[in-house]
Amino acid sequence: MAGKRGRQKEGAGVHLVNYSELMGPDWRFPDPSCQIPGLTSECHVIAPGSRSWGLRLNSWAAARRAVRAARMRVDATLVSHLPGATLRVAALAGQGARHIAFAFNFTDLPQGRKLRAYRAALSRVDEFVIFSNFERDLYSRHFGLESQRFSFLPWAMQAPQPGPVESPFDRPWLVALGGEGRDYQTLLAAARLRPDLRLVVIARPYNLAGLDLPPNVRAFTNLPAPQAWGLVAGAAGMLLPLREGRTPNGHITLVGAQLLGVPLAITDSLGVRDYVDETNSLLLPPSDTGVLAEAMDQLSAAGPAVAALAARAQQTARVRSNPQVWCDWFKARAATATEGSV
Fold it and tell me: What are the start-end ranges of the H helices in the chain?
């Protein structure tokens, strides 16, 4: 543990030292709209334009800057965003400042040598913020950590801001959006069973590698957010096929669709059960082409029952996934730190 000589003692409260490998130089966390007494923050990101080996070097350099900044303040809490950032910060920080692993979420769990590296580093992390309750037991078992160190927060966001888009078809379409934990092979097979329906897929290039698109499907990769959400907002419904019934991915996509009032058909996964149920979504078994095709029919028909599902989902999401939920979470921690310093 680093000594306290040379460290600044600021006012009572918490100073967040954030580190992310994905965000840009203008990123702020928590959002500046959060007015939280006793809480201040700074953000560290990797150098813009980093590529290949340079990306890895710059990731370690930015993590080192964050750790160094935290060591300069006795009121600092390190906040790493996503597991890769957590691994670097934990490895560098040792047993120094308090460390919160925010958005601790995996598409594929590490194995072998990589798992051993994670286990060694994560033992030094104080708290893990997860976006589904299912992940608490999943990660605590896999990494050998106490389940009490995991805190559930619902994914929170402002409603997406759809941009203007040209209609991809001359008739209503369905949409699938996102890259993590998706089963696009089954989705495309279902689309072949419904040649009269139209489907837009917005994914990453690796999602579609080796897959043949039927004539009634148009695919886009790496679209800017306004364009992607414009296609979602104009769709008759969203399809979110996940790889299996334990996949903890798709939270951003499903919450965005809910906030926009777009009807949703989604794989019934334990990893999304904090957000969807039979009252607000069409829940589907994993990897079932026929059921997925039937869901496409239901969404395309745009009947009152489907509209009611979307309305209930939107009403719930506006409360459950309001960004103020995260503000309140950090506010409680700042208040606790202030009380402890009196």
Answer: 52-71, 83-93, 112-122, 134-143, 184-193, 205-208, 225-233, 251-260, 289-301, 304-320, 324-341
Q: Is the peptide bond prior to 30 cis by the omega test (within 30 degrees of 0)?
A: yes
Which domains, and CATH codes, for the chain? 14-156+323-341 (3.40.50.2000), 174-320 (3.40.50.2000)
Q: Which pair of tokens denotes residue 289?
A: 């082409």
Other beta carbons within 10 angstroms of residue 9's beta carbon come to 10
pTM score, whole prediction = 0.92
Euclidean distance between CA atoms 44 and 86, whole angstroms: 13
> 233: which residues sit within 8 A by CB, 6+ positions away?
160, 162, 260, 262
Question: How many CB atoms are located within 10 Å of the residue 85 CB?
Answer: 29
Taking CA atoms, 330 is separated from 14, 69, 310, in Å, by 9, 20, 30
Q: Which amino acid is at 223?
A: L
The two structure tokens encoding residue 172:
């209503």
Report which of 307, 318, 313 is spatially closest to residue 272, judged by C-alpha positions.
313
Cα–Cα distance list, 97 to 77, 82, 120, 333, 341 (Å): 6, 18, 17, 15, 16
Amino acid at 110: P
Do the beta carbons of residue 85 and residue 19 sit within 8 Å? yes
What's the pLDDT tens digit per position in 259-306?
999 999 999 999 999 999 999 999 999 999 999 999 999 999 999 999
Alpha carbon 236 to chain centroid, angstroms: 24
The torsion angles phi and psi of 182, rounded to 5 degrees, stand at -90, 155
